[in-house]
Queue: 4 jobs
Job 1
Amino acid sequence: MDIQELDIALKKARKGDRDGLAILYEHFYPKILKYLHYRVGAHVAEDLTADVFLRMLNAINSQKGSFTAWLYTIARNVATDHFRSAKTRRETRLNDDTASNLAAEEEPTDLDDAHHDIEMAIGKLTDDQRELITLKFIQGLSNAEIGEIMDRKQEAVRGLQFRALSALRSNLMETAEV
Amino acid sequence: MTELENILDECVEEMRAGQNIEDVLEKHTQFAEELRPLLAIASRLESLPAPSPSMAGMTRSMTRFSSDAVARSRRKHRGWPALLYQPALARAAAILVVAAALLWGTTTVSAGALPGDLLYPIKLATERAKFYLTINPEEKAELRIVFSEERLKEVVKAYNRGDGVKEELLETMLEEARKAVEIGAGLTGESGDLLVVRAANLSDYQREVLKRLGDNAPPPDREVFTSWMDMCGQRGGWMRGWVDDAQDAPRDETPTERRNRRMMRCPM
């Protein structure tokens, strides 16, 4: 689906058009699910993805600017709310638990060892680093879009990118040593 | 440090444009040793797979999104036919369900699943997805008939496997056929009547299969089969009478009134 088609769907969706909403849902559902999978873990990604689309529905009339960045900002807020919950605070303090949740799959056969290692390593990053890694390398967004979503200047995004990749390298080396 | 951060970003962008790690590092040989492992990780990250959504999760999401869209339309547009929202959204979710099922290769595997089997919920979810993806009413009715046939096959297989008489399947079998007739009632012209005749023929066939099963079953099971067999007979009779009842209809009867009158006569 090209940008023009999405733009048309967005205009329709803002007016409450059912087909427009359906196209946006269909196009962005896998992307948001993937973002939340790597951001908060497989165990809650699906439920949080549903929350994102409900929030989208309630606010789409007032949406302005880049829709993609806006939707990811909603997803980011949903993830933040999730992390703020008492239960999740406990989980995030236990980094190993977070990493395991990130790597958790209902179908273990889908994971090969290499993917499992890197998912574990992502789970051990700080929240900001994990966010950057997810948006930049897993979602393929530009620095400008990431800056808008994370409310940072592009040079700050570049700095965070360097630190995140370096931390990920250290985590992977730790895993290899174990 | 800022220079290194900028160079790393530049290299990442060049790799995104199609260059490999060694090509992008040629311009930055003094930082190559430091950047190479970071770029290798960046490359690995971009190849991470998308998660496979679960049927249960997608169904939950679809239900919540659709119902909220309906509630929203009711609030914002009083008097609108709010349910207009639902089919398109359900179709969107159904496309995702079917895509996921195809991705996992479970659709074919689950086709022979029976109640109690691990894959049976996937089989039902795939059926629902197909139904939501179908827009044409005739095709929807056709699918109902196929589902009814499928439930009968499951009854036979489950019984032969030693699972006993699955009455809940028999109930669904009849309900699917009734829903096919209900859709047929809303169609104009011959196509509606043809659908009802098809459903009547299906009821006769189902009656025959249940009779054969009952004939070879021990007395308690035979009794159960006989009662469902009788119900198939009554339903078949009701459907056939449907086509011939035009002469009994009041002259000023609207299509909706006719459909309601006919559906009310459905044997329970």
Job 2
Amino acid sequence: MNKRQAGIAATALALALTATACGGGSGDSDELTIGIKFDQPGLGLKTPDGKYKGFDVDVAKYVAKELGYKNKDITFKEAPSADRENLLVNGDVDFIAATYSITPERKEKVDFAGPYLMAHQDLLVRKGDNSIDSEKDLNKSSLKLCSVTGSTSAQNVKKKFASKADLQEYGGYSECLTGLQNKAVDALTTDDSILAGFASQEEHQGKFKLTGLNLSDEPYGIGIKKGDTELQGKINKALKKMVKDGSWEKFAEKHFGPSGYEYGEAPKITETS
Amino acid sequence: MFDFLEDYDVWEAFWVTIQLTLYSAIGSLIWGTVLAAMRVSPVPVMRAFGTLYINTVRNTPLTVIIVATSLGLYQTMGIELGGGDSKEIGFRLAVLGLIAYHASFVCESLRSGINTVPVGQAEAARALGLNFLQVLTLIVLPQAFRSVVAPLANVLIALTKNTTVASAIGVSEAALLMKEMIEIESDVIFLVFAIFALGFVLLTLPVGMLLGWVSKRVAVKR
């Protein structure tokens, strides 16, 4: 084999490898790639031993089962907030269940199925702190709020209901939790489902509580490639079945129960074509 | 296409970036010079401190340093650097972290400049009866600075871009606004990237060209 042939062979091999890596379109293939969060306790978390757990993970697995995939056919891929649209557009994942709120801007690029959970922006405070019990208590400069840099919740605070409050932004929720424990901040604000996940963690149990203010509606949907109405229909059917046979309640109780989070009823499916 | 920009104050965000850069640049130039003086000083304890500081700080990721100023100094130890709301405190903590980190690079650049000054000059100055500080400030450092303008410009450009790390503790500079826009305007995500990339190029390119020209003008001809 001369150099040129070797080159062609290598290119062909590389192409074959990339082709398999990108495989996993819906339907005819027997593998499924699902985008989830890896760093959100209670919703989507990769444990140190390489397992995945959380509400989103259980929902994704249930949907996958209804679509005809076995557990061993599922590959989980991390879907950080900023990458979610592109993962779907490029076909790197088949669907995404990663605290993915349905918004008009996102629907420009992707489609949704669901929603499967109605989250609301809420506040997490230290147990025994009763100074916040209505939205009116938020908009004052003496209140130190904490949220994650660039998140929708942080912008809601700035632009909608608490522009006067002293908002500290951090790169992650754990820094805010440290601040809450140190009393450097008074409350951590984001979706109640995420807060419940943190409050239910073993090391945090009993230290924090949710205030139960519903400051916004965040319907979590399953993100799919734009225009894939067939998959949308199938996922919606699976979600309906999940609520009907009691699995939804079971998953919610398992992951959110310990924090006392009132997750309410499963929301009605709104995203149909 | 660009109408989404009306909801955001891009200028303000870049102004904070410029302020972070300026304060940190001045601070790290001063602290870096002091460190360089320590590293060439005749006192062993000072030399040891300089070496230890440089090797520790230079090899610690900047994110760790910046987050440590906020979690360690502010939250845990209660150091507020003058108080105010968390935005002001965050800004000053970020400047402190950036100075601590970049001073080590300024110091090492400057030390290489000191090495370009022939030893004979320092020896001659000593022979004339100048003490260490006089040798350093009158003979060595003026020549050292003139030969390291270009390396210091590199540090300044790196510093400009490194200010984006300050968003990790909530300083509302350009990178924080970019994160906000990525979250909300997910349909024009590449345009958002392009705008901020352009902003940083506009900040760093003229600085690089200007200081490149200055470095040629002031270089000591040997």
Job 3
Amino acid sequence: MISAILVMAAIGLVLGGILGWASIKFRVQDDPLVEKIDAILPQTQCGQCGFPGCKPYAEAIAKGEADINLCPPGGADGVNRLAELLGVEPKPLGEGLEAKPKSVAVIDENTCIGCTLCIQACPVDAIVGAAKQMHVIVASQCTGCELCLPPCPVDCISMQVIKEDVVNWKWRYPIHMMKRVA
Amino acid sequence: MNPKLFTFNGGVHPAGHKTESCTTPIRSMPLLPKYVVPMRQHIGEPARPVVAVGDRVLRGQMIGAAEGYVSTAVHAPTSGRVVAIEASAVPHPSGLFDLAVVIEADGEDQAIAFQPIDWRSLDPSALRNRMRDMGLAGLGGAVFPSYIKLNPGGQKIHTLILNGAECEPWITCDDRLMRERAPEMLRGIEIMQHALGCSKVIIGIEDNKPEALTAMRAAAPVGIEVVAVPSLYPGGGGKQLTYTLTGVETPTGGRSTDVGIQVFNVGTAYSLYRAVELGEPLISRIVTVTGHIAQPGNFEVRIGTPLTDLIAAAGGMLPGASGEIVGGPMMGFDLMDLAAPVTKAVNCLIIKNPALFPPKPIELSCIRCGECARACPADLQPFEMYWYSRAKNFGHAQSYNLFDCIECGCCSYVCPSHIPLVDYFRFAKSEIWEREREKRAADLARIRHEFKTFRLEREKQEKAEKFAKAAEKSKAAAAGATDAAAPADPDAERKKAILQAALERAQKAKAQVAPQNTENLPPRVQKEIDAIEARRATVEAKTESTPNHE
């Protein structure tokens, strides 16, 4: 009887010790939920959600301070995926927010005065140029966030919708032929 | 005499329809007034145009240079003038336009000086680089740049398989080429063997092409096996033919090179011969024109020939034609625009009529019969992938190895509910690719944003450090100064003086610009003002002394 209790106690102590050691050794520093939410967000860093970037928005969602439907670039698809991750009901995009077609910013080279204001505004450093030199946007790195539009003093930046071509063309969803039963 | 063959699972036996086009010899096309040569004719990066509008080009002159690794050059099909470099109709399932060089032929068909390559004395890697500029790409349909396939890299290739199976119904271009030009083709195979450094060569031809088998056997030297494989669609799929001939399965997501085997189409071998031994770049290919047309057959067609001209050369469509298919009926696609030209990928053009190609029956619900899984040559479960693709649950579709699907169309062919399964798989695949692209772009944006944030933070810190250092320096200077009574450092003192002087200057300037109207007055006016001031003073004194009435 006594020996059984002692054995059980010893096992408990050993296992408890292992668990305690593991919880210190394998502690997760960052909140993995923030990372997961951030992975779903489109990383345009546009701030349309009211937060200064995708990561802060992800942190706010994780804390329960922000709703999941504030990201227009992510669109309905993004909201659905967030809803799935967080186990909540999907909902339409927030009021006043609408998903726009994917675009890139383009600088009109004839109008640009080389003021560098757009370079400072670009969240992903996709604009190349120097003071009094013509600026140019690296299209492959532009997220289409539109943050460079307001600071431009000569309004030389415009958004161009990315057109469908034979590279980014997608096979369409096969059309269902409904059979008339009645 | 045939070695032991292996049989892959699944496959179907669609009606062959080969005799319509395989009985007549390859015909050549008359010279046309206009050619449209797309820059994107192969998998990978499109070629970059190296000619300008107005340039005169010669037959075989490079008009598009290979750009990037997976790319190959494009050449002028005849001599003439470049009249446009613009978006034109191309043979693509979308019907979208793509960049092409339009050449107006001058009728002289003058060629550049073709330089044959002495490949036996040439290093294989040098030979491969030449092939990149010769525009060689696989002519079986996938149009992968050949120079990459001729480069085994670190992998040792022990077996070279030549694919002459041509399993798709209707298509006979490889059949005719093997019948008519077997010796030349075998010289191309010899060059491939040299480039790859492999010992074993097997040519696989379906047994429904006895003439091609005979011709190739007659031309093949000792050591090159010509093997008849049973006619079973898709026996000409790269992975399927490899299994049939060697019993080796290509691993999931891998290529046959992973198991030491390289597969080339027989048409590519013939083009390689022309490129190396004659020095002529890839500017023509054999195309089957068949179906509901006056004179079906095979044509030697220059790349860039508009399909309307090809149809005209075959006697024109018969009345009652209901559309065109580029490629075979199993894997090809409906042509959107007849103005599209022949590219390196176009092996067949089928003119449809309602009798040969009846409209697709109505799609019914899946009855879970499993016929598609029995027919699948890639050993997949198409019904599972179909449910998930249809529900747009792409992750699950992928977990059923969607990307091992070769889109052969066997499942759609056998489905008793007439479900276009392959259409669903293509849809799912392109959606997944789109998501991958988006994810890559998002990852790049995240990294760049994080770096920018880090950079701004670093700059701020550096600035603060600099200020702190400067402050310390001035403090030290102040401490070191002999005059302890002057706490401010001389620099600040000097700055203050400068500021003070500037301020005074500014005030002075302002005073000069706006003189007050009470200064520099004539004596009469001054006297008046003095009198008024005196009166005001007495009035004020009075009001102060008198008590308040209220």
Job 4
Amino acid sequence: MAVKHFKTADFVQTVGNEPLVMVDFWADWCGPCKMLSPVIEEIGAQYQGRALVGKVNVDEEPELARQFGVMQIPTVVFLKDGKEVARKVGAMPAGVFTGVLDQYL
Amino acid sequence: MSYDVLVIGGGPAGLSAAVNVRARGRSVLVVSNPLEENPLWKSERVDNYLGLPELSGRELLETMRRHAEKAGAAFRDGRVVSALPSGGQWYVGIGSDMEHASALILAAGVARGKKFPGEAEFLGRGVSYCATCDGMLYRGRSVAVVGYTPTAEREAEFLRSIGCTVTYFRQPKRCEIRGGQQVEEITCDGVTQAVDGVFLLRPAMAPTDLFPGLEMEGGYVKTDRRMATNLPGLFAAGDCTGGPLQVSKAAGDGLVAGQSAAAWASEAARKGRTT
């Protein structure tokens, strides 16, 4: 599966060993999140094996959303060696996200 | 549902665009604030619109709206908060919902990009432009709504209904948002309130906030003679493209943008059929 659905319980363990991670915080009542969803899927497929692309449903995993201080969705957070290096807020074209991934690959 | 053309803004430019998209046999959705929130609504008399003198702004708007409805345009109240091109379509976020179309026409009037101190810095860290989109993340917390339209007051009511403590600032001239990692307080026209979130609800998003990379000229959206912007499939009409800020000019712009967007959609449909 190109895009992983993160859970609070296994987030640290899953992300800990990954050099580069992109996390999309979303909810099913959020229009802009629905717009972004195919873009995230596409990036997940494109970067498979090079970066871990995943999603967090903020309703199902409010604790993760709180940990990352997510106060608007969609928010996409980039983690390099487990540390946040960039964050993009709002639905944006794929190039904005791939630009960040390419910078840290 | 998918439309050929989606028009952002329901004033003279947007309505004229919608009529002309329908005249070319294409489907069109107009997304706008309620008609009575259009600035023209308050004009007591408009005397330079050819052939229809001595009408109030309200009468002119209602006449134009009826015309567009009769032409078969679809309408939806709401504020467009995001737009994203993907796979040959424009996806448009309207509050917490979404629509998509082959071509877009921006006809949302004059919306300046000038921001309050702290606004850009705390975007996504407590600053939001859409209560129905992000309200759920603030359940049980204290928020400020900075509102410039009656619709904003309804959005404040929505926030109260989901358990937010709301401080409402009605059309303040100056605000400043402060905090550390996230928003902690806001001051509007000398009144300071400690809050976890700030909802800035202006009548329309600034064009460059809605469309990153959109070319501007002298504070207005730059278009060519077909009312095309530099972004593929995005056209613009009316006051957002520059002066004179008059109804006749807006209606003319709308006609050109409507025809151009309809042609764009026809071409997209033709390509879709042949590939």
